[in-house]
Write a structure and sequence with these properties.
This protein is of the alpha+beta class. It is 20% helix and 36% strand. Helix 2 runs antiparallel to helix 3.
Length: 182
C-alpha cells in the first residue's frame, strides 16, 4: 500500500497515493495531462551546465560544485544568507521505471512526511514533484523533481528551511529551469 497524502491536488488522475504517482510516471495511461510549464531561466538565475548533459539555473551567489558520482551537481546558498538551501542534481542513465519506484519506497520506508505531490512539465517532459517536510536534517524540507526521459532520469532535490520567506518560489524557479542538452 502506498503513502496516503494530506493534500491531493492531482488526485483526479493519480489515484491518491504516491505509489499511484510512480505508476503514472513510469508509463500507465493518464486521464488528464499536467499543465505545461515554461522552462526558462529566470533573470535572477545563472545557467550552470554539467558535461553536456543538462543545464540548470541557480542564483549567481551560490557555491556550485561538480563531481562524477551522484549527486553530480551540488549548489549551496551563501552561509548566513536569507534563504538557507542546498540543491543537488543527479543524472541516471536509467529510465524512470527503474529510478522512481525505489526512491518512493525509500521515502515510505523512512517515514518521511509527504506534504504534496503533483505532475508538472519541466523541459517539455513530464516530471513528478514531491514536497517533503519534517526531515531529520538541518534543512528539514525538500522538493524532489523526477524528470523522466525514455532511457534517463534527472532528479533534482532542494533542501530548505521552512521558515524562509520566498523559498518555495525560488525553488520552483530553479527546478523549472532544468534543461536536458541535446
Amino acid at each position: 500500500m502506498g503513502l496516503a497524502l494530506d493534500r491531493l491536488p492531482g488526485d483526479r488522475w493519480l489515484g491518491g497515493t504516491i505509489v499511484a504517482a510512480s505508476l503514472w510516471l513510469t508509463g500507465l495511461p493518464v486521464i488528464a495531462q499536467p499543465a505545461a510549464s515554461t522552462p526558462l531561466v529566470a533573470a535572477s538565475l545563472q545557467a550552470y551546465g554539467y558535461n553536456d548533459l543538462f543545464t540548470i539555473g541557480l542564483p549567481a551567489d551560490w557555491r556550485v560544485s561538480q563531481q562524477s558520482q551522484a549527486p553530480q551537481v551540488t549548489a549551496l546558498a551563501p552561509a548566513g544568507g536569507a534563504i538557507p538551501m542546498r540543491t543537488e542534481i543527479t543524472w541516471h542513465d536509467r529510465p524512470p521505471a527503474e529510478v522512481v519506484p525505489p526512491a518512493l519506497e525509500q521515502i515510505e520506508t523512512q517515514g518521511y512526511e509527504v506534504a504534496n505531490y503533483d505532475a508538472i512539465t519541466i523541459n517539455n517532459t513530464t516530471a513528478l514533484q514531491i514536497w517533503l517536510t519534517n526531515l531529520p536534517e538541518d534543512l528539514p524540507n525538500a522538493l524532489i523533481s523526477y524528470i523522466g526521459y525514455p532511457n534517463q532520469t534527472a532528479v533534482i532535490v532542494t533542501y530548505y528551511n521552512g521558515q524562509s520567506t520566498g523559498a518555495e518560489d525560488l525553488i520552483s524557479s530553479i527546478h523549472q529551469s532544468f534543461q536536458r542538452l541535446p
